[in-house]
């Protein structure tokens, strides 16, 4: 008969309970620390960016509507084109600074491809401009008609860009009436999508913005009635049941856009191994491609460091765990913006350009830091 050492078993069980208790406390402390990041990220980075983008979009819509009216009245609209170009750049600035958080509604509702597909399908667009019957439908239906009947390559930022810019300069004041109608309709749709992004994250928008997403024909708002900010903060979405999962999603969004900037936005034109690659210039009419790239990296900075000074951020958490890694990430962000800023004539001279290659390498290094070092540290 074997003698059972009950004291030994009790000691082992006690040690196990203590170890489990310590692990639970550590996880609870980690969750509490990560929770501090989420609300300022939602309110001061995501919602603030989308809100500013939608507001600038309303300014743009006002300008292009005035251009259409001036053309109809045979009035000079040169200054309006300049003002519209300024508004387009401002709206575009906030959109590009949102690309570190293209998950959620931007992805689920296809808003990203809806407003930012390129290259423009010029031939189909011209066929519409030459079709008097369809132009009448566009003028009557505006953004609602565009949303329901246009492909992504016929609308959004780049279709508007085509009418407002040429070879990096403001377009000459020689637009046809049909072109002004088309421009107004696609900008109305663009603004509606921007407002919907704000609405999806904030749960509501101002009365002015709500009026622009009200479908009069259907008699209801275009809003999906979602609140992704609450999903993030209250951990009510299936993919985000812990604050760790939320913060990992924040960093994952940064990794995704860094990879896209390096491999696609800069990489395809740099390699230019095919006609499609040669035409893969993000902003070919305004010549603001490098500004777009820099703003994409700034979107990473805002997501990682916080868009508002003093906000708790991913950077704060990483700094406590590994100060050297945090310094490396911030240095990589800053150097990425710096090297992108040194690129000259991207739209006309991207292939084999050494400045483009240096920027690609640096942004790739940033993506690797986030994926290979920051993400594993978060998961510990």
Model description:
The chain has 380 residues and is an all-alpha fold. The chain contains 17 helices and four strands. A two-stranded antiparallel ribbon has the order 1-2. A hairpin with a 4-residue loop joins strand 3 (214-215) and strand 4 (220-221). The chain starts with 5 loop residues before the first helix and ends with a helix.
The overall strand count is: 4
Mean pLDDT: 93
Note poorly predicted spans: none
Oligomer state of the chains in this structure: single chain
**Strand line-up in the sheet with most strands:** 1-2
Query: Can you say what the CATH homologous superfamily of the largest domain is?
Result: M75 peptidase, HXXE motif
Distance between the termini: 46 Å
Please outline the major beta sheet.
Answer: 2 strands, antiparallel
Radius of gyration, whole Å: 25 Å
* Number of helices, counting only DSSP H or I runs of 4 residues or more: 17
Shape: globular
CATH topology of the largest domain: A middle domain of Talin 1
Q: Tell me the series of helices and strands, N- to C-terminal.
A: HHHHHHHEEHHEEHHHHHHHH
Q: What is the SS-derived class?
A: mainly alpha
CATH architecture of the largest domain: Up-down Bundle
Helix fraction, binned, reads over 70%
- CATH C-level name of the largest domain: Mainly Alpha
The overall number of domains is 2
β-sheet strand percentage: under 5%
Give a nutshell description of this structure.
The protein is mainly α and 380 residues long. The chain has 17 helices and four strands.
């Amino acid at each position: 008969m074997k003698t059972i050492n009950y004291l030994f078993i009790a000691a082992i069980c006690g040690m196990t309970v203590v170890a489990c208790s310590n692990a639970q406390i550590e996880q609870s402390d980690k969750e509490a620390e990560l929770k501090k990041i989420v609300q300022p990220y939602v309110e001061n980075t995501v919602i603030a960016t989308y809100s500013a983008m939608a507001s600038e979009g309303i300014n743009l819509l006002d300008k292009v509507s005035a251009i259409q009216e001036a053309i109809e009245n045979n009035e000079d609209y040169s200054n309006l084109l300049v003002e519209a170009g300024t508004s387009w750049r401002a709206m575009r600035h906030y959109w590009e600074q949102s690309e570190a958080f293209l998950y959620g509604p931007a992805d689920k509702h296809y808003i990203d491809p809806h407003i930012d597909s390129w290259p423009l399908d010029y031939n189909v667009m011209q066929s519409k401009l030459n079709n008097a019957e369809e132009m009448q439908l566009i003028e009557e239906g505006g953004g609602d008609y565009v949303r329901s009947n246009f492909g992504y390559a016929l609308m959004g930022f780049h279709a508007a860009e085509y009418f407002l810019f040429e070879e990096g300069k403001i377009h000459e004041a020689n637009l046809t009436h049909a072109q002004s109608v088309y421009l107004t309709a696609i900008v109305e749709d663009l603004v509606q999508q921007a407002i919907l992004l704000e609405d999806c994250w904030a749960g509501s928008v101002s009365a002015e913005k709500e009026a622009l997403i009200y479908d009069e024909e259907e008699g209801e708002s275009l809003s999906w009635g979602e609140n992704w900010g609450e999903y993030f903060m209250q951990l009510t979405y299936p993919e985000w049941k812990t604050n760790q999962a939320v913060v990992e999603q924040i960093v994952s969004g940064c990794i995704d856009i860094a990879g896209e900037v390096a491999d696609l936005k800069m990489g395809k034109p740099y390699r230019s191994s095919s006609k499609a690659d040669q035409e893969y210039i993000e902003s070919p009419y305004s010549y603001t491609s490098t500004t777009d790239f820099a703003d994409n990296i700034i979107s990473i900075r805002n997501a990682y460091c916080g868009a508002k000074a003093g906000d708790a951020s991913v950077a704060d958490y990483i700094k406590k765990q590994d100060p050297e890694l945090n310094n490396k990430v911030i240095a990589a962000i800053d150097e990425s913006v710096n090297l992108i800023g040194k690129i000259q004539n991207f739209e006309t001279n991207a292939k084999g350009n050494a400045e483009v290659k240096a920027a690609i390498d640096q942004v790739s290094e940033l993506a690797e830091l986030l994926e290979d070092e920051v993400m594993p540290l978060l998961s510990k």
